[in-house]
Amino acid sequence: MPKVTIAQQILAANDAIAAEIRQALAERGIRAVNVMSAPGAGKTTLLERTIERLRGQVSIGVVEGDIETSADAERIEAAGAQETVQINTRGACHLEAHMIRDALAQIDLSRVNLLFIENIGNLVCPATWELGEDARVVITSTTEGDEKPAKYPQMFAVAQALVINKLDLLPYVDYDIEKVKRQALAINPRLRIFEVSCRTGDGLDAWCDWLMSGPWKDA
Amino acid sequence: MPKVTIAQQILAANDAIAAEIRQALAERGIRAVNVMSAPGAGKTTLLERTIERLRGQVSIGVVEGDIETSADAERIEAAGAQETVQINTRGACHLEAHMIRDALAQIDLSRVNLLFIENIGNLVCPATWELGEDARVVITSTTEGDEKPAKYPQMFAVAQALVINKLDLLPYVDYDIEKVKRQALAINPRLRIFEVSCRTGDGLDAWCDWLMSGPWKDA
Fold it and tell me: pLDDT by residue (tens digit) across B80-102?
């Protein structure tokens, strides 16, 4: 059997599980956000700051994806998430829907209104795999260089929102933020863009407003 | 046929091509370095600075891997590489040996003594794919967070050298460089570690000395 056919079958099976997850979450009134980025762009830190800000307004659950370690899940618990579960992929470069299904079986979904799925740090592979989310968010940071949308277009094409993080480091790097926004919008004109610093808190209000109110699709 | 068997066959076929490349390069006296990192850690910038420093001492060729665009190959040519060739993987998350074989057929190897292969920006998938290189180098940067070796161990296990880049940004980030070195050496005790700033030039002499003199294996 040709390799490409096998790959298509695997993706189709994944998408079927993702559709089941999406329906199960919708029935419970839970909205899910798949958070993706290169390693070190600030996924966990953005979730920590978001959980701290939304405490008391919404009940947050987090599925933490990592190749190894439970360090991020421990940070997320400390930040105050209601429910946290760690997936270790043991080498795999992205999360798949069956991993989310198994992870969700381990937490109390009745305690969750907003579910974050923190994907593996990788700007390529996670873009192809639906996880049952309502929205996909890609984070890029000012220290990564300002040609990331052009070089990794698929990730920016599938996202509803782009968070440009580490605004506080802008004075120390060569980074043309307007170029990044132009590149990203050329790939995906409906992308919502948030410019933030998780260190100083700049821009996090607008990001949290979007999380709480939407619209998430075609905004 | 089970998926894992197919995957093993694909990897075995890749490694056979990699062995051919390694032998062909050795017969020509060319040493090859596979440069890997997360997106934005500074692969292209490190190669630019290296080419500028080694000009007149060694004749450098570069195989540039990107999902899209030829922006990096243009930077490398401007820096003064003797031969440059761009591979666009159109979505694939890593380079494979057959791509290197095809790319090398497009350049004049008689003009090259030292060949750099700049892999796709990805801390996961490239670690599994041999390309016929003599040494693998992983770059991590001070803005990516200081738990990368623990979270992406395979990449650090397969490398001969680790370059910790963006030393100039250390004052502005929370990054424990000694922790990174400890984590990396726990995974791979024979890893050579270079602390550099491609912006200020700090540490690049030691890195260039290693490139020129080795030993690259088991150093």
Answer: 999 999 999 988 999 999 999 99
